[in-house]
Structure formats: structure tokens, C-alpha cells
Write a structure and sequence with these properties.
The protein is an alpha/beta fold. About 25% of the residues lie in helices and about 30% in strands. Strands 1, 2, 3, 4, 5, 6, 7, 8 and 9 form a nine-stranded antiparallel beta sheet that branches. Strands 10-11-14-15-16-17-18-19 form an eight-stranded parallel beta barrel, surrounded by four helices. Helix 7 links the parallel strand 14 and strand 15. Helix 5 runs parallel beside helix 6 and helix 12 packs parallel to helix 14. The termini are far apart. The N terminus is likely disordered.
């Protein structure tokens, strides 16, 4: 039978600072002492320490394959009535499986370790002991990490390819290293700046035998593809190819009335930031959280952002909110919550509404852009509920309005390969389409409503060194020599045409561009006169 180590050894393992700061919900590295960890003392002797937080339990026992799942072999001891229970076993139990047995009012509840680094779904769902020395990794992404802090987020081209790892669950299990090459190649095809990973951590719902549980295990990587060091290899490879990594980590399931859960969430975010070099976090839908009044949720959300941003200027956070709560992306000193971006629900909703209501007028389409500067917005393209023909018309609009971009791999597959990739490259390569995205001086409508279905707007870079005119015709009618006012003279090169031969396979004359005439129009000193085909979208870029 394995023996418990002495009390003095346990006391030395967990400091008073750990206990106090955790109970006050200000311990941002609680994963360093909670959970299981393998320790080595000065005599090179190894032990395995288990620590959990169970404030309502009258007694806690450690059970595992090392004690034949006995509920009496390894009782845990509480530290000064703090709700923190611990025990240490004088052996290296790497890869052992374990659970905690919580006893309260003669009732015993078996739970998994919330701080598990790995879970196993074999004959018994259990946490697994991980040896940190085996998870060590030598990173090679120093250039990426240093560069991500040098450019203001507003001026960066942010186009995030969202990948759900559940799409890769199959009989043929791939490793993180094998997936790395596939993910990078896919991101490069569509000129994505970042890859967002969904379900990168374990969720108990994946284990059929414990479907009654509902916890997400934020510290445990999805084990079917490998261990933590394997995932680090994937992220490192992504960074070396100049692509960022965003973790989709929804916080809706967190109980904000329990300090320990707040502490766990903050520690999880720091864990992914420091251990896995994650560049951003999508925290999901928070409308339900903001509607709660039992706890100051807003204060904690602000605390999350302040802690993360204090550790790295280049790391960003964003959320989705349908509650209408203002100022989510303003800093705390201006009364905001400090998120870098908010998903713009209004934009896709207005576009969907416009095309589904035949009675809509021209200004109804323009309404989709009215609140683009109310917050720092990112638009989730998957929320557009349109057929493919309409999506092809709206996609260039999406890539040229001043917001950051989010799209799933399944959404991209609806288009011809080059159509999406070409627009994404235009967005990425021309600062006129990504600079000053959060400032209301970078876009101006030129025309809407005068001719049915015809819309035009201007965009320019922060220093006005680049300008572009976007023209779309949503109608079934063609227009000959229709003119649009522009602020600068010069040659406007056509850098995109949705009806180009490469997209439609239809033979047609190629238009290189057009010179602005000296005729003033639309309250601007110069004008462009062009022919418009039905159902078309064109981008004209000013070449100085």
C-alpha cells in the first residue's frame, strides 16, 4: 500500500500565499498548486501531490487505480478550514487515473479534478496525472511573440478562420502535429491572420458514460489528438508561419457567485496565455451573464481583461452580446469592460432582414453600417442566412467595411476556391481596408437610392495615402456610364470584380480601371463614370 507523506512536507508544498489569495479570488496561478503534480525534494525523492477545493464537503478521499479505487485508503486533509483539501503520496504516479470522493451528510459524490491536465474516457471516466517535466517544450516563436505587441489592434488586418476540432473526430485519429500542417495550409489558402480553435479543451459531454455531468475542463487539452506538449508543437508551428491562435473559451457556464469559479476561470486564461502562447480569446455569448444582478459580473469581466492585457499588450479578447449593453470595448477608466472587440450582431441581422423583406428601401441596406463604430466590432460571417448568389454579393461588402473578420471553414467551402481567398488577400494586403477600423472617419457613403439597387462608398487609410471606391449593384438591371463622386483625381484601378471571368467562366472584356474626371459630383470635386452589370460588386483602388 502506498503511504501518505508527512504533514510537514504537505505544509511546505502549499504556501500561505496560495491559500489566502485563492480564497480571496486573486490567485491567477491556482493551477500551480491545485490539481495533481509530481514533486521532487532535495534528496531527489519523488512524490505526487493532490489538492482540490471542496468547501462544502465534510470529508474528501482520493481514489484511483493506484489504490484499486478505494474510498478509505487515502483520506485528504483540509488546510485550516479553508475548503482546500490535500494529500501527498510518496511515489511518482505519472499517467495514473484518479477521482475525488466528496462526503457530505452521509452522501458520497465522485468528481473529476477541475484542474485535470488530461482526462480518460476508458472503462472509467477519470482524471490523469501529468508530469510537467514531460510537458516541457522549447518554443521557437520569439519573433511572433515580440511582433504581436508592436501594431495597434485597430490597424491590424484581423481575419480569423474558425475551426471546430469536433469536425476532426473520426476513426482515423490524427495527431496535433499532423493537424498543424493541415490547419496552416488552410489558413494560408484564405489569407487568414489567425486560427480560432473550438473544443480544444475537454468537455465532459464528450464522454458518453458521464453525460449527466456538465463541466468543461479548461486545463485539459483534447486528449484524442495528443498531450500538452503536442499541442504546443502545433501552436509553435502556426506562429512560425506568421499566423495567430485564438482559443474559443465560452464563460457562460461559470457561476459568478462563487469566488472559486472566478478564480479558476482567470487561472485558466493565464494558463493558456503563458503555457500555450495563445494570442486571443473568444469568450462567447455573455448576454445571459450581463442580465444577472446577484453578483457584479461587469466588475469581474473588467478584471479579466485588465489582468490579461497587463501580461501582454498583443493579446486580445472578444465576446458576443445581444443584450445591448453599451461600452463593452471601452477601457475601464471610461466606464467600459475592456474587451478589445465585440461581435456585431446588428450587421448580419440587418443584411438578412433586408434581403428577406421585399418592401425594404435603399436606406434599409445602409442601416447595416450605421452602428459600425458604436463599439470595436468583429463580424461573424456565419450569421448571414442567405443563398450563395446573395452571399457572393455581400462577401466583398463584408471584407471592405471597417470591422475585423471571423468565418468558419464550413462557410468558406460554400464559395469557389479563389473567390473568398482573393477578397481576403485584398483585405490583408491593402491598409485602406483594415486601418482605422474602429474610427468613424475611415468610411463614407457616396451613393444609395438614386438608382435602384446601386450603392457606393469610400474608404481610406489612416494617413489618407490610400483610397478606394466600392460600387455594388444589387438589382437585376444594368447601368451605362453611371457616375460617382470621389475626393481625389487620378487612376482608379479595378482590383476586384465579382463578375470577372475567373469567377463566372463567362467571356467578357477586362476593365483595368478608369481615370477620375474633373466633373464634380455627389458633393465631391471629381467623379468616376463606369458601366455596371446586374448583380455585381467592384472595387476601385486609387493609384497615385
Amino acid at each position: 500500500m502506498l503511504k501518505l507523506s508527512d504533514k510537514q512536507n504537505q505544509k511546505n508544498q502549499i504556501s500561505e500565499y496560495d491559500v489566502y489569495s485563492f480564497t480571496q479570488s486573486v490567485h491567477y496561478h491556482s493551477h500551480h498548486f491545485l490539481g495533481s503534480r509530481i514533486l521532487t525534494n532535495s534528496q531527489k525523492q519523488q512524490s505526487t501531490q493532490f489538492t482540490c477545493f471542496a468547501p462544502n464537503a465534510q470529508a474528501v478521499s482520493l481514489i484511483g487505480d493506484f489504490n484499486q479505487w478505494s474510498r478509505t485508503s487515502h483520506p485528504m486533509k483540509q488546510i485550516a478550514e479553508t475548503g482546500i483539501w490535500t494529500c501527498s503520496i510518496q511515489s511518482n504516479l505519472r499517467s495514473s487515473f484518479y477521482q475525488y470522493a466528496l462526503i457530505s451528510n452521509s452522501h458520497t459524490e465522485l468528481i473529476l479534478d477541475p484542474f485535470s491536465r488530461l482526462l480518460d474516457s476508458g472503462s472509467r471516466v477519470a482524471s490523469k496525472v501529468v508530469d510537467d517535466s514531460f510537458e516541457a517544450y522549447s518554443w521557437n516563436d520569439n519573433t511572433w511573440i515580440s511582433n504581436r505587441e508592436t501594431i495597434e489592434l485597430s490597424d491590424k488586418p484581423i481575419s480569423i478562420l474558425s475551426i471546430d476540432l469536433r469536425d476532426y473526430y473520426s476513426a482515423e485519429v490524427l495527431t496535433y502535429q499532423e493537424l498543424a500542417k493541415e490547419f496552416v495550409a488552410r489558413a494560408q489558402e484564405v489569407n487568414a491572420s489567425h486560427i480560432e480553435f473550438k473544443n480544444l479543451y475537454e468537455n465532459i459531454f464528450e464522454f458518453e458514460k458521464s453525460s449527466s455531468l456538465s463541466e468543461s475542463f479548461y486545463f485539459a487539452v483534447a486528449a484524442r489528438f495528443g498531450q500538452g506538449c503536442d499541442l504546443k508543437c502545433l501552436i509553435d508551428f502556426v506562429h512560425q508561419n506568421n499566423i495567430g491562435v485564438v482559443l474559443n473559451l465560452p464563460i457562460l457556464g461559470i457561476n459568478f457567485s462563487k469566488k472559486e469559479q472566478l478564480n479558476t476561470l482567470l487561472s485558466a486564461l493565464i494558463f493558456w496565455l503563458e503555457e500555450f502562447h495563445v494570442d486571443g480569446f473568444n469568450m462567447g455569448q455573455i448576454a445571459a451573464l450581463l442580465s444577472r444582478t446577484s453578483y457584479n459580473v461587469k466588475s469581474f469581466l473588467l478584471q479579466i481583461n485588465q489582468v490579461l492585457h497587463s501580461r501582454s499588450k498583443g493579446v486580445f479578447t472578444f465576446v458576443e452580446d445581444e443584450s445591448g449593453c453599451p461600452d463593452l470595448t471601452k477601457p475601464g477608466f471610461l466606464g467600459g469592460l475592456g474587451f478589445n472587440m465585440k461581435s456585431n450582431i446588428y450587421f448580419p441581422n440587418e443584411i438578412n432582414k433586408f434581403f428577406k423583406n421585399t418592401e425594404n428601401k435603399a436606406h434599409d441596406f445602409v442601416c447595416s453600417s450605421i452602428n459600425l463604430f458604436a463599439e470595436n466590432f468583429i463580424i461573424d460571417m456565419d450569421k448571414l442566412d442567405l443563398d450563395l448568389d446573395l452571399l457572393k454579393l455581400i462577401l466583398p461588402y463584408y471584407f471592405t467595411v471597417p470591422t475585423k473578420k471571423l468565418f468558419s471553414d464550413n462557410f468558406i467551402k460554400r464559395f469557389e476556391q479563389n473567390y473568398f481567398a482573393d477578397l481576403s488577400k485584398i483585405y490583408f494586403d491593402h491598409k485602406v481596408f483594415h486601418q482605422s477600423d474602429f474610427r468613424d472617419v475611415c468610411m463614407e457613403w457616396v451613393k444609395y437610392g438614386e438608382e435602384p439597387g446601386v450603392y457606393a462608398y469610400l474608404r481610406w487609410s489612416r494617413d489618407y495615402s490610400e483610397q478606394a471606391l466600392m460600387v455594388m449593384n444589387l438589382s437585376e438591371s444594368s447601368y451605362n456610364s453611371i457616375c460617382f463622386g470621389v475626393p481625389e483625381t487620378g487612376f482608379y484601378q479595378q482590383i476586384f470584380d465579382s463578375n470577372a471571368e475567373k469567377y463566372t467562366k463567362r467571356k467578357r472584356d477586362y476593365l483595368d480601371g478608369v481615370y477620375a474626371s474633373l466633373e464634380s459630383r455627389d458633393f465631391r470635386p471629381y467623379s468616376l463614370c463606369i458601366d455596371l452589370e446586374p448583380r455585381s460588386f467592384c472595387i476601385y483602388y486609387l493609384r497615385n
